[in-house]
């Protein structure tokens, strides 16, 4: 019997974008309000999981053509790189710094911290691990 | 002005809570899956939306803070709960959950028989 899941697919097209946008918002506000790399990553993979539920594995893999194991490696390298960066300036490992910059779009005195890059590493690792687990379980017969 | 606003907020939140209680009563009292889904999706959606609107209004009136997250939550609940209820009831129909014996009309039955013949 042909399954008609037009309603699920239409709702998913709108809702998954809201979820992923909100997860990116959570990721960037993690420094001053609740949120951060872990919740942001989990919520991004939640949005991708919703896409997986509405469409099949091959469709989602063609939309997001990442090898998620490589995403894990990139995240770990980012986290390690921000840790090592402190060593070049005679500071202990994992020393983080920040500065105020005048950016064209975000306004003057925008605070940019290297902790965000570390958080980006956490984010990528969480997305990669969650999606790897789900895809591996989903593929096995 | 703030007191009137707080009164409106209170009315909204109490209405939302009452609708949520109504949902629970409907879940307990209705006979089959489909009528329960009807009770759970509609009144719970409106109840939660009223509570969230009350919350957003409260922080707007008292602290002048417009919470985008709460407004996003209202839109999100409005979009997702009916879809979830539709999926649950459709899944239970596909698995052959019987309708309440007092129900008189089953539009899907004819269509499913046609599809099985093809």
Task: For this entry, give a set of tags.
heterodimer; A: 141 residues; mainly alpha; two-stranded antiparallel sheet; B: 118 residues; 4 helices; 0% strand
Short characterization:
By secondary structure, chain A is mainly alpha-helical. Chain A is 65% helix and 9% strand.
What does this structure look like?
The complex is a heterodimer of chains A (141) and B (118). The model of chain A has no long low-confidence stretch (mean pLDDT 88). Chain A starts with 5 loop residues before the first helix and ends with a helix. Chain A is 65% helix and 9% strand. Chain A has 141 residues and is mainly α. A two-stranded antiparallel ribbon of chain A has the order 1-2. In chain A, helix 1 runs antiparallel to helix 2, helix 2 packs parallel to helix 5 (115-139) and helix 4 runs antiparallel to helix 5. In chain A, a hairpin with a 3-residue loop joins strand 1 and strand 2. Chain B has helices spanning 2-29, 33-63, 68-94, 107-117. Chain B has 4 helices and no strands. Chain B has 118 residues and is mostly helical. Chain B is elongated, with a radius of gyration of 19 Å.
């Amino acid at each position: 019997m042909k399954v008609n899941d037009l309603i699920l697919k239409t709702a998913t097209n709108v809702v998954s974008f809201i979820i992923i946008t909100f997860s990116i918002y959570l990721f960037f506000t993690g420094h001053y309000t609740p949120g951060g790399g872990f919740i942001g990553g989990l919520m991004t993979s939640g949005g991708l999981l919703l896409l997986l539920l509405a469409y099949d594995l091959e469709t989602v893999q063609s939309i997001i053509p990442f090898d998620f194991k490589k995403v894990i490696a990139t995240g770990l390298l980012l986290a390690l790189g921000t840790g090592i960066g402190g060593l070049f300036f005679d500071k202990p490992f994992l020393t983080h710094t920040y500065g105020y910059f005048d950016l064209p779009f975000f306004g003057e005195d925008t605070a940019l911290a290297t902790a965000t890059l570390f958080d980006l590493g956490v984010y990528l690792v969480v997305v990669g691990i969650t999606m790897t687990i789900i895809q591996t379980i989903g593929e096995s017969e | 002005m703030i007191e009137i606003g707080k009164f409106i907020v209170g009315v909204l939140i109490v209405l939302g809570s009452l609708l949520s209680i109504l949902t629970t009563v409907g879940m307990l009292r209705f006979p089959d899956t489909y009528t329960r889904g009807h009770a759970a999706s509609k009144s719970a959606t409106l109840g939660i939306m009223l509570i969230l609107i009350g919350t957003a209004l409260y922080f707007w009136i008292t602290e002048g803070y417009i919470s985008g997250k709460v407004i996003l939550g209202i839109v999100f609940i409005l979009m997702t709960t009916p879809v979830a209820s539709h999926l649950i009831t459709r899944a239970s129909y596909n698995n052959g959950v019987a309708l309440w014996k007092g129900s008189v009309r089953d539009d899907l039955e004819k269509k499913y028989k046609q599809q099985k013949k093809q």
